[in-house]
Design a protein that fits this description.
This protein has about 325 residues and is mainly alpha-helical. It contains ten helices and four strands; from the N terminus they run ββββαααααααααα. It folds into three domains: about 100 residues, no CATH class; about 100 residues, no CATH class; about 100 residues, no CATH class. The chain is about 35% helix and about 5% strand. The protein starts with about 25 loop residues before the first strand and ends in a 7-residue tail after the last helix.
């Protein structure tokens, strides 16, 4: 069985096939779910059932040749759509205001299940997410995933047993120290700035996903919630252990579809993206991932596992 090249979503950006006015804005439509091409290329498939209370607006739809559908949401000065080498629209990301340097919408609200945590950490949620937008060319799925992990790890709280903060373990920080700006020797996770925490997250995923494009693979995962579930699994269980759980979940959806070896390569990522991009298989994938995580933790951390199950967002 062959799957699309996962790196297709990392191809250079192209204007959509039938749009006018370049590739700096797009619109999406209602009714037939196809957008109009005015201002920046034709729109692609848009799923109105998908929640839109996260950073940006996504689609993993087919060819972006929009028609005359009524406009739903114009997005000014956005980075447009990404296409593979055949011109097939594979992704639309959110709008970009002139001068901001990123494609993120306003910072999302604190996840409800961690509201009480951040009530005791004034400014932490805003500070971290603002730092993420300051990373070079942050992606929407990347920013969403980092915020979700930051919340799951308790913000800037420090674990008294491991001395981890924001899920950053001292040993892992030491291993990535040279890739975090302004980080000298002897700085503990608790003393990291928001910017350094954001830089650590990116460095971690550049390493964990190095065979499939590093942190940029989160944009290519096919769905923001699936990307977040993938990212949290790799962060919580480690690159190898998390990959093994992801492979086990995919094996439950399609037995024999991937090897279970703990290595994140194009084959494993391609299958994940294929499932995540397909609403009919995204739900079973997230459900299987929830179950393997729950089994691995023997029922512990159920609030975290339930959150990344994304029952309402599938």
């Amino acid at each position: 069985m062959q799957f699309p090249n996962p790196f297709a979503m990392l191809a250079p950006r192209h204007p959509d096939a039938e749009g006018s006015g370049g590739d700096l804005s797009y619109t999406v439509g209602t009714d037939d779910d196809l957008g109009d091409g005015g201002g920046g290329g034709s729109g692609g498939h848009y799923n109105p059932e998908q929640p839109r209370d996260w950073h940006g607006r996504w689609t993993a739809g087919p060819d972006g040749r929009g028609g005359d559908a009524d406009l739903l949401t114009p997005v000014a000065d956005g980075p447009g759509s990404y296409s593979d080498s055949n011109g097939r629209l594979v992704l639309i990301i959110g709008g970009m205001d002139k001068g901001t340097g990123n494609g993120l919408d306003a910072i999302a609200d604190v996840p409800a299940w961690k509201a009480s945590v951040f009530a005791g950490q004034p400014g932490a949620w805003q500070g971290f997410n603002t730092a993420v937008t300051g990373l070079p060319e942050p992606g929407d799925a990347e920013a969403f995933s980092y915020g979700e992990i930051f919340a799951a790890e308790g913000g800037v709280a420090v674990d008294r047993k491991t001395f981890a903060s924001s899920g950053i373990m001292p040993a892992t920080l030491d291993a990535l120290r040279g890739r975090i700006p302004g980080l000298g020797g002897g700085i503990a996770p608790a003393n990291l700035t928001y910017g350094q925490r954001a830089a650590f997250y990116r460095a971690y995923f550049d390493d964990a996903l190095r065979s499939v494009g590093g942190h940029r693979a989160l944009e290519a995962a096919g769905n923001p919630f699936a990307a977040s579930a993938l990212a949290d699994t790799l962060f919580r269980f480690g690159a190898s252990g998390g990959t093994r759980l992801l492979q086990s979940a995919m094996d439950k959806v399609m037995p024999g579809g991937v090897g279970i070896d703990g290595r994140m390569g194009p084959g494993t990522f391609g299958v994940f993206r294929e499932f995540a991009s397909d609403p009919a298989r995204r739900g079973p994938l997230l459900e299987a991932l929830y179950n393997v995580r729950k089994s691995q933790l023997s029922g512990r951390e159920e609030d975290r596992n339930q959150h990344f199950r994304y029952l309402r967002e599938r």
